[in-house]
Each structure stands twice: as C-alpha cells, then as structure tokens.
Write a structure and sequence with these properties.
Length: 174
C-alpha cells in the first residue's frame, strides 16, 4: 500500500470521519462536574473547510457524544453529525440514502475495530498512522500523521489533489 489510491479518491463526494483517535489524539481529559475536553488540531479544521469548498460533503459518525464536538463541527460548518452511534452502519445507510450516494462515492477514516465494518464498506477507506496494525491491514490508505496530529488534513489534501481541486484553492490564499 505504498501508492495513494488516486482513482478511488477521484470518486469521493462524501468524506466521513470518526472522532476519537482521528480528529483527536484519542486522549480524553476529564475534569470536575463531568467536564470532558477533546483536543482538535487546527490544521485538520482548515483541511476540512477546504475540502468542503472543493465540493465534497463532510460527516461525522462517532460512538460517543460531546458538547465540544458539537461546537467544533458548528464552527467548521459540518452539518451531518451523528453522535452516540454504536452501530455506525445505521447512520451510514441513512446518510448515504439522504445524499443519494453509492458506496464508491464515500470515504471513511477510522482508527479502531469499531470502525472496521464501515472501512470495509466504503469506496475509499483510510486509517491513521497510530491505528492498531490489525486495522491497518484492512484499509486503502494509512496516513503518515497520527490521529489528532494532522491526519485529517493529510487526507483532505490528498483527496483534493486527486480531484484536481487543491491547486485552485491554494491560489485563493495568494
């Protein structure tokens, strides 16, 4: 798996992300009064915004629920947010039907065994560099960055590069 699957990435119209271990480092910080803190990387956020500007929809499917996640996704304009999804395939099927997409048009990035069913279903599957080796054996691509450390940005840019939308978006910053 040394070559990025460009042909699969060209077809992507929806990019779904897991949260803990993908958009965050996977560490959860607990404080008083049920305070739960998550650590999001700003580079991932900009990558997500750029991918949206390129025409690819974004969605979150996660088994946990968090006010911090709700707030971060609102900041980024991600409207398809499914929390408390212990059976992620149910949310996936609902989203696929709502957006009238095929499996081949959907990418998913997850980091652990609870993501395996979705990773085997979508047209383009990815995991982060620090995911368990057993999961890495079942995906199309493994990022060079760890979860919560720019892995999402790496994937967003790779998809835009495959779809020839990255360069025009970069010019908007010049």
């Amino acid at each position: 798996m040394t070559t990025f699957p460009t042909e699969k990435a060209k077809k992507i119209r929806l990019f779904i992300l897991d949260v803990d271990g993908v958009l965050t480092s996977g560490r959860v910080y607990y404080g008083p009064n049920q305070l739960r803190l998550l650590d999001f990387h700003v580079h991932d956020g900009l990558g997500m915004k750029l991918l949206q500007r390129s025409g690819v929809e974004l969605a979150i499917i996660t088994a946990r629920s968090s006010d911090a996640l709700t707030e971060r996704m609102q900041e980024l304009g991600v409207t398809h947010v499914f929390q408390n999804q212990h059976n992620k395939l149910t949310a996936y099927e609902s989203l696929k039907e709502k957006l009238s997409l095929t499996d081949a048009e959907i990418a998913y990035v997850g980091d652990d065994l609870t993501d395996l069913a979705l990773l085997k279903r979508v047209g383009f599957s990815a995991t982060v560099a620090n995911a368990p080796k057993i999961l890495q054996e079942h995906v199309d691509w493994i990022t060079s960055c760890a979860g919560g450390s720019g892995a999402v940005r790496e994937l967003c840019e790779a998809i835009m590069h495959a779809q020839n939308t990255l360069t025009p978006l970069l010019h908007s910053f010049l």
